[in-house]
């Protein structure tokens, strides 16, 4: 069972402030380095596509980013369930939606906050910016203005205009409802539905559900004034009137009696346990208000264990949230260059989501959520991180769009389209998630050796708050408290377990252990006592050796070679013990491992073969099928060089060992990584670009990694210490707190022998 994730206000603010304020950057997709690039991208070259588009507007989809660019536009009048916060204060939500577009469906997106509550001014602004975008996602605009705005923009624009809070929410709610009804064994035509919140989301949800078969006479809609009944005059508008019920019911409380379904798109706490208690058997409760639901699942289940409960939040089962819809609806719509997102596309999306939830869930997804995901009361809708969404939902949307004639460019090869969607998403994100999932499943007690460093403390706090396991911080209580307090994280102090020589009951055992290990290598009792009680690396290693933690992370404050030397007082993690360092470089959706980055200074050919084996193991741990290249400055013996000889010989050693992965060498890095360069050597045994590079020495490893990090901005994970039994990871002195957290996650992933 996983630990529930916690986030504090300080966590949320820090997330939005670091590494740079906000949540995304804009980066170019073409080279802009030479005079020629400048001439092509800008004057004079840019004139050519301009004229082409002037002649044929559809050419904008070929020569500009229009076809994959969606604007998230708001005026901030209904920001989540927080109310009218205004344009500026809504920006974090809109930036967030833009990031979700990119992360989940590779749709480029930009947020636009318009400072007006006048629908005409809003419509005009959006209409005028139409040429820039392939689609418009309207967000968090309050009802009833949102209905007028969307309707007019749909009429006046030739690209999809989609109010996410209306239709995104309705689609996901419908998908969840299809499955909830299957579980409760009820039919949509028969059920009594109460919907609370007669705004953007509420009106759209009820319309879609009625179009799916719900009976008008079985549906009661409520707002802040209670039931919307025929003849009511207060707080009404034409959209509410369309759903006014012929009924004597006047309050939500009355309406909830014997209702089968409650749909909440209103506000925090709008529903009481008593209301839930009065519902029919197997009630369905979708409390979708954000960030806080109408009633929490705990409260609902306390009075009705038979309830099927969903919320809009990611920290409870059954997240009915439009994040499952808008990325994929737009992906499908953009891919057929749609003029609109119509009802058929929305319904296709709802069915694709509902169907997916009834399929078997891949282990990696279940692991990421730390619980069994199997169609049932606690799993009626796919989870947002389900990697199948990207290739299941957009094809369904695109097909419905093509069938109804809204696409400018139909997809001819649907199988090829699905394959392109599978390949489209950044595999590195997937890899990071799966490591995370494995770590979460282990719930390892992680020893953070350097409690006097704020990066380490942040990583330790995040480790614990992310539900990965327990963080054990080695340090002085007063120092840790002061450091956390100095960065506004004082509340985290009580959450961490601080361990040191003064408060452990095991110090004597640690000293004895160390004395036995070191007595024949020039250390007397006094040396040993000092090392055990004063050196935090040694102390932490002793904790690990005694099973007082499951993994150890250190190295953020001292050079890794020095730290490794200290750890070797307790463990045997030297080159001759088989230890190897492997560093993962992540860049532009690609992952390449470089090794040995930590232990062997000048490996010989036998060592290199061992290093390759360790590199291949790490690749498999990360979910990659290893393709190992021994890299040098020569390729297959040319130019002949004494220095490259060991790289030439190492593959032969590996061949004799009979390993079960692809390897080749020696070769230059371009031949290893670039299929075109590799094609000049058709005899190569690599079936594709290498993903593990074995380098000749530690200096070349260090240079390669740091060059990639500094020049290209690659994400670096490692060096991952492997080849030893213990779960130890050594960070670097320039590690950020998220690097340290990644190392802790890697340490946590290691299986216990
Ligand atoms: N899970 C999800 O994916 C989504 C959830 N939502 C959530 O739905 C809620 C509404 O959003 P949206 O439709 O965009 O906002 P709107 O401002 O358009 O509509 C809000 C509606 O809720 C009603 N309302 C507010 N408070 C209460 C209450 N205590 N009891 C009864 N009715 C109430 C308002 O009543 P009145 O008309 O009388 O003012 C209004 O009809 C928000 O909490 C939002 O976070 C929205 C979109 C997606
Ligand atoms: C999820 C969403 O769009 C909302 O709560 O407004
Ligand atoms: Mg919204």
From TrEMBL:
UniProt protein name: Malic enzyme
Family, per entry: In the C-terminal section; belongs to the phosphate acetyltransferase and butyryltransferase family.
Cofactor(s), names only, from the UniProt record: Mn(2+); Mg(2+)
Keywords: Metal-binding, Multifunctional enzyme, NADP, Oxidoreductase
A Gene Ontology BP annotation from the UniProt entry: malate metabolic process
Pfam families cross-referenced by the UniProt entry: malic (PF00390), Malic_M (PF03949), PTA_PTB (PF01515)
Active site: 97
Gene Ontology MF terms: acyltransferase activity; malic enzyme activity; metal ion binding; NAD binding; oxidoreductase activity, acting on the CH-OH group of donors, NAD or NADP as acceptor
Organism annotation: Falsihalocynthiibacter arcticus
Domain Cyclic nucleotide-binding: 469-505
Residues engaged in binding a divalent metal cation: 139-140, 165, 290
């Amino acid at each position: 069972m996983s630990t529930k994730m916690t986030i504090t206000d300080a966590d949320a603010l820090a997330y939005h402030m670091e590494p740079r304020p906000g949540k995304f950057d804009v980066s170019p997709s073409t080279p802009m380095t030479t005079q020629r690039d400048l001439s092509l991208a800008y004057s004079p070259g840019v004139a050519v596509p301009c004229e082409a588009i002037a002649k044929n507007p559809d050419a904008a989809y070929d020569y500009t980013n229009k076809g994959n660019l969606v604007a998230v536009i708001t005026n901030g009048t209904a920001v989540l369930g927080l109310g009218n916060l205004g344009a500026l204060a809504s920006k974090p939500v809109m930036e967030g939606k833009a990031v979700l577009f990119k992360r989940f469906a590779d749709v480029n997106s930009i947020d636009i906050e318009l400072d007006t509550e006048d629908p005409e001014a809003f419509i005009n602004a959006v209409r005028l910016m139409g040429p820039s975008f392939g689609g418009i996602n309207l967000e968090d605009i309050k009802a009833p203005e949102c209905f007028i705005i969307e309707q007019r923009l749909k009429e006046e624009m030739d690209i999809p205009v989609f109010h996410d809070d209306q239709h995104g929410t309705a689609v996901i709610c419908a998908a969840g409802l299809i499955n909830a009804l299957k579980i409760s064994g009820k039919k949509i035509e028969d059920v009594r539905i109460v919907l609370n919140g007669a705004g953007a989301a509420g009106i759209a949800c009820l319309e879609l559900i009625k179009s799916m078969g719900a009976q008008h006479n079985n549906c009661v809609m409520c707002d802040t004034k209670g039931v919307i009944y025929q003849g009511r005059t207060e707080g009404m508008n034409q959209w509410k009137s369309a759903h006014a019920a012929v009924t004597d019911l006047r309050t939500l409380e009355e309406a909830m009696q014997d209702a089968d379904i409650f749909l909440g798109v209103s506000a925090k706490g709008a529903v009481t346990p008593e209301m839930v208690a009065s519902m029919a058997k197997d009630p369905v409760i979708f409390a979708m208000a954000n960030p806080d639901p109408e009633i929490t699942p705990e409260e609902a289940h306390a009075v009705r264990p038979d309830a099927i409960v969903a919320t809009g939040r990611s920290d409870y089962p059954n997240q009915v949230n439009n994040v499952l819809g808008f990325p994929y609806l737009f992906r499908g719509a953009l891919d057929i260059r749609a003029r609109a997102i119509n009802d058929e596309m929305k319904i296709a999306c709802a069915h694709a989501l509902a169907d997916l939830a009834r399929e078997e869930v891949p282990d990696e997804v279940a692991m990421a959520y730390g619980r069994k995901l199997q169609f049932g009361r606690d799993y009626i809708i796919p989870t947002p991180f389900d990697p199948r969404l990207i290739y299941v939902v957009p094809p369904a949307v695109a097909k419905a769009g093509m069938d109804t004639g809204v696409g400018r460019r139909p997809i001819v090869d649907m199988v090829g389209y699905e394959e392109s969607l599978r390949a489209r998403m950044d595999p590195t994100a997937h890899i990071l998630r799966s490591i995370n999932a494995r770590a979460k499943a282990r719930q390892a007690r992680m020893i953070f050796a350097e409690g006097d460093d704020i990066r380490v403390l942040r990583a330790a706090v995040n480790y614990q708050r992310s539900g990965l396991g327990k963080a054990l911080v080695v340090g002085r209580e007063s120092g840790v408290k002061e450091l956390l307090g100095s960065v506004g994280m004082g509340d985290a102090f009580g959450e961490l377990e601080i361990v040191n020589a003064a408060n452990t009951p095991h110090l004597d055992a640690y000293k004895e252990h160390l004395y036995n290990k070191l007595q024949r290598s020039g250390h007397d009792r006094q040396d040993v006592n000092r090392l055990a009680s004063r050196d935090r690396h040694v102390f932490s290693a002793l904790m690990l050796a005694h099973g007082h933690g499951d993994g150890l992370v250190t190295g953020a404050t001292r050079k890794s070679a020095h730290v490794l030397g200290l750890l070797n007082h307790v463990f045997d993690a030297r080159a001759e013990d088989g230890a190897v360092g492997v560093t993962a470089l992540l860049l532009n959706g690609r992952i390449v491992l470089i090794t040995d980055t930590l232990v062997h200074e000048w490996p010989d050919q036998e060592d290199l073969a061992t290093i390759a084996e360790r590199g291949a193991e790490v690749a498999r741990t990360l979910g990659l099928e290893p393709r190992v290249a021994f890299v040098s400055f020569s390729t297959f013996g040319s130019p002949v060089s004494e220095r490259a000889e060991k790289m030439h010989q190492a593959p032969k050693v590996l061949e004799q060992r009979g390993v079960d992965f692809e390897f080749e060498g020696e070769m230059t890095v371009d031949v290893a990584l670039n299929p075109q360069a590799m094609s000049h050597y058709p005899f190569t045994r690599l079936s594709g670009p290498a993903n593990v590079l074995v380098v000749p020495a530690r200096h070349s490893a260090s240079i390669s990694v740091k060059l990639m990090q500094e020049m290209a901005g690659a994400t670096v994970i490692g060096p991952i210490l492997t080849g030893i039994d213990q779960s130890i990871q050594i960070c670097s002195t320039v590690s950020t707190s998220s690097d340290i957290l990644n190392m802790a996650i890697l340490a946590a992933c290691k299986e216990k022998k």
